[in-house]
Write a structure and sequence with these properties.
single chain; 365 residues; alpha/beta; Four Helix Bundle (Hemerythrin (Met), subunit A); Rossmann fold; 2 domains; seven-stranded mixed sheet; four-stranded mixed sheet; 13 helices; globular; binds 5-S-methyl-1-O-phosphono-5-thio-D-ribulose
Length: 365
């Protein structure tokens, strides 16, 4: 997608041919700065400190992290150690495990001397595939938005609510939940996006608003608590969110607060769609509440808020007493029964095992 009118991906190989470029997403929307990763340690830190985030981008960064490790030491021992180190960075997004497995399958059988070149080729392939998959998700989701647009009175936009950032910043390009929105906008459909702020880290306020704004897509930032109220007043035609891990039975794990939006959507007959690449389906998990590990993050994400002062300085301020105990679950699980459909690269699946298996017989095992 575009940054200041220039096409951009979220991750790339630098002109030196080996360092990995990323956007430091912790600085957005106040500053656009890129960072070069030159070791597996730096790649692991970029994931755990959330310079990069979003399930598909976490997977892509881990893949390039293994490239950096193989360049330094392509031994079997280091392949295992680097893979373990990257796997430990964030527990919920299953794309991390998927990408490391894909890389391992290519690298393990090779002689160590051949591993670095093969790793870069495979990581590039994972990234290119992700772009194409997101584009296809966009095409399928576009049909949903077109259908809604046909039933809107003239002059009224299709109002779409999204949570967190499942935009191009969370993938390599296009995004998952945002891909249909970008395509609808480019097709001239009148769309408007309600952007949940997404406490505690404010990925909606900071990232989704930033990327929609860069593309000129009409949007309005709302508090996390506003969605239900807007739905009650007929101001939301559709919800679409991303996911960090979806069971093969259709339970959807996504950023904390997604479940409450799905409940409100259900109560108000608002369709609730989840956009996902097949790489986010966990074919070993059947019960989202039991089988998906929920990341616990530092309490400072809740007890403090970072922002820009009117003088342009970026500061972090406390919003609760210093000693207040804080619990920070980063994700929640929306049961399949609250999900209208899963927008994948192969089409729109029902949130159940039969439908997902029929759509992905090659992956279901
Ligand atoms: O903690 P984050 O910012 O990595 O969480 C991101 C999300 O919850 C996204 O909705 C999800 O990864 C889907 S990204 C296409």
């Amino acid at each position: 997608m575009q940054v200041a009118g220039q096409p951009h991906r979220t991750i790339w190989v630098d002109d030196d041919g080996w360092s990995i470029g990323i956007i430091d997403q912790t600085l957005l929307p106040h500053a656009f700065e890129t960072v070069l990763l030159q070791s597996v340690e730096q790649a692991a830190t970029a994931i755990s400190d959330m310079l990069v985030r979003g399930a598909p981008l976490i997977g892509a960064t881990a893949a390039y992290g293994l490239c950096l490790a193989m360049r330094e030491d392509p031994s079997d021992t280091n392949l295992q150690a680097a893979s373990d180190q990257l796997m430990a960075t964030r527990p919920t997004a299953v794309n991390l495990r998927w990408a490391l497995d894909e890389m391992g399958q290519v690298l393990s059988p090779l002689a160590p001397a051949d591993r670095a070149v093969a790793a870069y080729a495979k990581a590039a392939n994972i990234c290119d595939d992700d772009v194409e998959i997101c584009r296809q998700i966009g095409e399928h989701g576009l049909e949903l938005i077109k259908a809604l647009a046909q039933n809107k009175p003239a002059g009224q936009p299709v109002n779409i609510l999204t949570h967190c950032n499942a935009g191009w910043l969370a993938t390599v390009d296009w995004g998952t939940a945002t891909a249909p929105i970008y395509m609808a906008f480019e097709a001239g459909i009148d769309v408007h996006v309600w952007v949940d702020e997404t406490r505690p880290r404010n990925q909606g306020a900071a990232l989704t608003s930033w990327e929609l704004g860069n593309h000129g897509v009409p949007h309005t930032l709302i508090t996390d608590n506003a969605g239900g109220h807007l739905m009650q007043h007929g101001l939301v035609d559709m919800c679409i969110v991303g996911t960090d891990r979806t069971t093969y039975t259709g339970d959807v794990c996504n950023k904390i607060g997604t479940y409450l939006k799905a409940l409100a959507a259900h109560d108000n007959n608002v369709p609730f769609y989840v956009a996902l690449p097949s790489t986010t389906i966990d074919w070993t998990a059947s019960d989202g509440l039991r089988d998906i590990p929920i990341e616990q993050r530092h309490g400072d994400e809740i007890g403090k808020v970072a922002g820009r002062t009117k003088d342009g300085e970026i500061v972090s301020v406390a919003i609760s007493p210093d000693q207040t105990p804080i619990r920070n679950d980063a994700f929640d699980v929306t049961p399949a029964r609250l999900v209208t459909g899963l927008v994948t690269e192969r089409g729109i699946a029902q949130p159940n095992a039969d439908s997902l298996r029929a759509m992905f017989p090659d992956l279901a095992g």
